[in-house]
Design a protein that fits this description.
About 45% of the residues lie in helices and about 20% in strands. By secondary structure, the chain is α+β, with helices and mostly antiparallel strands. It has one domain (about 1-115): Nucleotidyltransferase, domain 5. The radius of gyration is 14 Å and the shape is globular. The N and C termini lie far apart (about 40 Å).
C-alpha cells in the first residue's frame, strides 16, 4: 500500500512539472493534452488563456477503435484535421504524467503527419 501511494505521488509531481514547464514556455499557444485509460485514449486542444477546450477527440463511442496504438494514431489524425478546420496549426504537446512512448508517441506522430506543428 505504501509503494502504491509513492507511485501516485511521483506521477502527480511529474504531471505538474511537465504542465508547469509547458505553461511557462507556451506564450499563448494552445496545448494538446493527452489522457489514456486502460481501454481508451482522449486528446484535446486547450486554450489556457481563455480556459476553454477548442477541439477534442477520443476513442470513446467509436466501436472500431480502442485505446491501442492504432486507435491512438487515428485519434491524432482526427484531432489534427479538426484543428485545421478551426485554423489551429501550432500547439504545445502536453504528455501529462505519461512517458513519450507507445500510444502517446503514436498519437503525437499521427498529429504531426496530419499537419499539426509542435
Amino acid at each position: 500500500m505504501k509503494r502504491q501511494k509513492q507511485i501516485q505521488t511521483m506521477r502527480k509531481r511529474r504531471k505538474f512539472r511537465v504542465r508547469n514547464h509547458i505553461r511557462r514556455t507556451a506564450h499563448g499557444v494552445p496545448r494538446l493534452s493527452v489522457f489514456r485509460s486502460n481501454n481508451h485514449i482522449y486528446a484535446q486542444i486547450i486554450d489556457d488563456t481563455a480556459g476553454e477546450t477548442l477541439v477534442s477527440s477520443s476513442t470513446l463511442g467509436k466501436s472500431d477503435l480502442t485505446g491501442n496504438r492504432k486507435g491512438a494514431a487515428a485519434i491524432g489524425k482526427e484531432l489534427a484535421e479538426k484543428a485545421a478546420d478551426k485554423g489551429i496549426d501550432k500547439v504545445v504537446f502536453d504528455r501529462g504524467a505519461y512517458r513519450f512512448h507507445g500510444r502517446i508517441a503514436a498519437l503525437a506522430e499521427a498529429a504531426r503527419a496530419a499537419g499539426l506543428k509542435f
